[in-house]
Specification:
heterodimer, A: about 110 residues, mainly beta, seven-stranded mixed β-sheet, four-stranded antiparallel β-sheet, about 0% helix, B: about 110 residues, six-stranded mixed β-sheet, about 60% strand, globular
């Protein structure tokens, strides 16, 4: 059990640029989740995958956001045309099933200049 | 959606002191997790506790699901206990987090 891995740990970019984050879940965890955490707040749910199927997207995810999990293993979260309000910590979690606890990665901290 | 309220919002402790953090939630939940977020932003699982009491070293937690609250106890606090403690409840598959309790332990 090597834990949930997220890359990069930090990303600084200019407003208007596209960014992509990667999440590698714990092996054999077929549930994968993305959350976003802004300063001083708890994480908020963004989206959920069961294997390669994306089963729910929060209304927090505008059309500029897209997430994929092509082979049911790693996942990517892409933000197009970044805005100042996208600055946050993006957290990925995985679990072997919906009744088991979710385990979180160390997150990707995004800063928009 | 479900509401999760944590209290107190901030807590300052002298090293060695004991404390209790509270989490109230507004509806029935499938389970509840407590996390510690350290100063580097890492979210560490503390407890998975849909009901009952669990202990792990100096930490223990109790969830009374029928009354919709959970408590986290920190005993003999250490400076390494500093950080933000989050309660998160699961409805279906997604976690809903409270705003957290920021704990500062002074030497």
């Amino acid at each position: 059990d090597t834990g949930v891995s997220q890359n990069p740990r930090h990303k600084i970019t200019k407003r208007g640029q596209n960014v992509t984050f990667r999440c590698d879940p714990i092996s054999e965890h077929n549930r994968l989740y993305w959350y976003r955490q802004t300063l001083g707040q708890g994480p908020e749910f963004l989206t959920y995958f069961q294997n390669e199927a994306q089963l729910e997207k929060s209304r927090l995810l505008s059309d500029r956001f897209s997430a994929e999990r092509p082979k049911g293993s790693f996942s990517t979260l892409e933000i197009q045309r970044t805005e100042q309000g996208d600055s946050a910590m993006y957290l990925c979690a995985s679990s072997p099933g919906t009744v088991q606890p979710q385990h979180f990665g160390d997150g990707t901290r995004l800063s928009i200049l | 959606g479900i509401q999760v309220e944590q209290s107190p919002p901030d807590l300052i402790l002298q090293e060695g002191a004991n404390s209790t953090l509270r989490c109230n939630f507004s509806d029935s939940v499938n389970n509840l997790q407590w996390f510690h977020q350290n100063p580097w932003g890492q979210l560490i699982n503390l407890f998975y506790i849909p009901s009952g009491t669990k202990q792990n070293g100096r930490l223990s937690a109790t969830t009374v699901a029928t009354e919709r609250y959970s408590l986290l106890y920190i005993s003999s606090s250490q400076t390494t206990d500093s950080g933000v403690y989050f309660c998160a409840v699961r409805v279906d598959y997604k976690l809903s987090f409270g705003a957290g309790t920021t704990v500062t332990v002074r030497a």
